[in-house]
Design goal:
The protein starts with 9 loop residues before the first helix and ends in a 9-residue tail after the last strand. Strand 3, helix 5 and strand 4 form a beta-alpha-beta unit. With 380 residues, the protein is an alpha/beta fold.
Length: 380
Amino acid sequence: MPFSSFGLSPALLNLLAEQNYEQPYPIQKEVIPAVLGRTDILGIAPTGSGKTASYVLPILSNLQGSSALKNRHAQVLVLVPTRELAVQVRDVFILFGTELPERIKTIAAYGGVSINPQMIGLQGVQVLVATPGRLLELVDSNAVHLSEIETLVLDEADKMLNLGFQEEMKRIFTLLPKKRQNLLFSATLSEKLANINQIVLHNPVVIKIESERETIDLIEQTGYFVTLEKKGPLLRYIIKSRELKQVLVFTSSTFQADNVADKLCKNGIDAVSIHSKKSQGARTEALREFKTGRLRVLVTTDLLARGIDIEFLPQVINYELPRSPKDYIHRIGRTGRAENPGEAISFVAPEDQHHFRIIQKKMGKWVTMIDSANLDLKGF
């Protein structure tokens, strides 16, 4: 089933062809026609499944030919849990909107940066991608109005609920018109999500993509038994001996992320840390450098474990294991995305061995283990 069968705008089809998007992914096959038909959707799909494009393309198509609204009255609102995801979603709207005959203005609004440029940028906005807190600040400043929203998208809704956005989201719902299209997307279907489903959605089409198992199978997983003091040398050994060019390294704390990045740099490996304590400008620049391949190693916390699309990322390394099996899957899911193979490497200290066995059991896949004591790490 090609993209041309959905009824998307000809300009979008031309751009898809130019960008070498040949066949839609499973979630796109189901979501695109439903959004074009103005139906509410509850979409359950893992990260890397093509979810963002599945709603961006039909929303842009639906906006073509729509009547202009009053200034600062957006037509589409996309709510996301993090600044990074807000920027990513905005960029997808801009990418696909560049060749449309009618220009669609898209703005990303998020905290951690000055609010004034965002207030100015909301002039003539049609698509607003925002984190809940900053959105309410803009509403309170009369910089944007939500009374004319035609389509509401909740992206990574399960994560937003876990981060404690419930009260902010309830207030946002009171500002929205009752008659609107609602599109809710999540990687998992939890009890909390089911509750918000009752609040937001009206007779939704439920779309569930069971590709997480396939995604895991695309990822070659290896674990290393290693003592705490040997983790640094082992990391540098793997990167240097295998000449890895683009590696995402996960740590459990901002302090450790900074420490690992600093030691990599001191040993001649280009690395930058990125986490919640970094300025938004620093985070954006580091992510841009990493995505384009100009930065060799990006060291982070679980801030980037979900919602950030880094195409064709070859390796992920768990310098420290995450707290839960679910977080482990989200981390390694940064690689092996959209049917591309990838590799995930995990460092397992003696005190982590029981926890890693639980992760593997929950994942339903046993990881090949290597004893780092047998490796010559001298000089690393």
